[in-house]
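User: Predict the full complex structure for these chains.
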Amino acid sequence: MTGFRVLGVCGAARVGVLATAHGEINTPAFMPVGTQATVKGMLPEQVAGTGAEIILGNTYHLMLRPGAERVAALGGLHRFMNWPGPILTDSGGFQVMSLAGLRKLSEGGVTFRSHLDGSLHELTPERSIGIQHKLDADITMCFDECTPWPATEAEAATSMRLSMRWAARCRAVFVERPGYGLFGIVQGSVYPELRAESAAALIAQGFDGYAVGGLAVGEGQELMLATLETTVPLLPADRPRYLMGVGRPSDIVHAVARGIDMFDCVMPTRSGRTGQGFTKRGTINIRNARHAADPRPLEAGCACPACRCYSRAYLHHLFRAEEMLGPMLLTWHNLQRFQDLMRGLRGAIAVGGLSAFIARFEADEALGDIEPVSGMVEGESP
Amino acid sequence: MTGFRVLGVCGAARVGVLATAHGEINTPAFMPVGTQATVKGMLPEQVAGTGAEIILGNTYHLMLRPGAERVAALGGLHRFMNWPGPILTDSGGFQVMSLAGLRKLSEGGVTFRSHLDGSLHELTPERSIGIQHKLDADITMCFDECTPWPATEAEAATSMRLSMRWAARCRAVFVERPGYGLFGIVQGSVYPELRAESAAALIAQGFDGYAVGGLAVGEGQELMLATLETTVPLLPADRPRYLMGVGRPSDIVHAVARGIDMFDCVMPTRSGRTGQGFTKRGTINIRNARHAADPRPLEAGCACPACRCYSRAYLHHLFRAEEMLGPMLLTWHNLQRFQDLMRGLRGAIAVGGLSAFIARFEADEALGDIEPVSGMVEGESP
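Assistant: Here is the predicted structure of the two-chain assembly.
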């Protein structure tokens, strides 16, 4: 059982604290993704330094390599990867469907071949919960089928109802311990009646938190937000709400305004590795030739080391020269940007100023990255 | 002009301090290699944290990308790469011969094609010194021809005498500034008379330091040390001596015993990226299956983060999973190991105990990596 306190609301948005076995998380929270027991290119203390209080681990990857038993024998995922804070693990369901080969879905679960070596494996609700237990996840996610997009209402209903039966099996085998929680996942694609049926089924079972799954799979922001508007009000106000796999800063801001408390996404880390930097004024491709001689930081005023200590010209050079430090620094900046955004959202909600915050956020993004003014470049350098 | 003070001697070995425009360097010193304006996979503050006080930059790489003028416009190499300490740059000569295409050597210099884009470039003594000046190197190296191995005595003589004429041209155009020094490079392959002729030619011109070049190119440790034994005594005692491109810990230890003060080598960084860790007990390939479940640190007692915070099992996992953090942590450890070795050497020389230090060093290396004792593994974990 995890603890959740709502400290303040602003419209549908909430600011709160989620208490777990390995520490407290201020919400709304963004969880950096540490797929293979590492947030790519970052030391755990650097991740924590950006303000991240919880990270996500991937059951599918970790069960295949190094294996849940190995991680358990080495003291659990926290100790294995030297992240002392809270960890949420996904159930493996989503990644089995997107990464593994030769999948076979049945009432029991999913059999599949490892994308690493072709070996045969099975994931069931019981096995997924068992693996997450071995990893010592603070927050365990129910094993579900992420309904593909697009899906007809009939397909979405069949898929969702299977996930609800699996959720009951997860609930039944989850071992309750203080500070450890199990989250259910609402499915139903973009069909409000299915979402309502799913939410009701989960609430009847009772979970420590409720995730909204099956979104950010190609439906677009408008449909995603519309689905949140009909789904979130059905979820218990006294439990955290987690929008899985989301997303861009704009997605996060608008989902928070609709009552979402938790997010995860590979975007800041994956984009960082390819040279895409997130700033208040939108994204910047640091590989672009216009940055080659630019002495300004990636984002003026940002507290991350990439912005405090280096020029755009240097970051550009690192990416052109294919140096590891480029992805390391851009990842760091992006994680800082996402955490700064969450901090800003929490502050805005706490003072009842979310609308103004969102208006400013959108105005900044609309500005776009400003070109250096010739002759002023020196004065603007860090 | 750089300053050099010998603080103590032990046989031929010396402990000293080299003063440059960007700070002091305790010798014997090992210089991590930052080829493309970054020590691969490391933040500058992490490099400094291992105890490194000076790093090496490569003129050949930096002149091609991002270009010396670009670096100069951005405030010089120190500011560009956020390394506030001393920097030594090589002359580009060695790397032109080993990396570039279509080389043409003449009395004037070398014309070559960039390995990046095939564009035509020229390096001369004057241009090399000019580039190193633009980079703002604390220590500039003379442009020379690194005599290939093997070379007949006649070939070695011709090559060495060209380098001596080039050294005079370097000396002539080097701009003297306080804290900035120019080092000459003794050539002559493994021929003592040629080495003596080269040393005399350089000493007659007068340099801030003297490098021994053309070694560690395949001649083996025995010939390398024999060459040092005849060459080093010919060099001024009041100037630092730099053995270029060396080397393994064993090479460093024995070269220090023969009076060498400075070293550089890609070995700790390059090996770190492929999973080879340097320890007191020799090298460890962390990818080896025997480390997969080993909860012990890479090297017990090592102060680096890779050893303080992670198990061999975790490092093994990172390399198997091709995670960036693996190369990052192994590089960090290796740089720490090399700097710890230099610190140990300096301490041993200062107290007149170098022989005992070397005996212990060799006994430790001979031990090899110790297997975990079954049943004691848990107790040994960090």
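The first strand of chain A starts at residue 3 and ends at 10.
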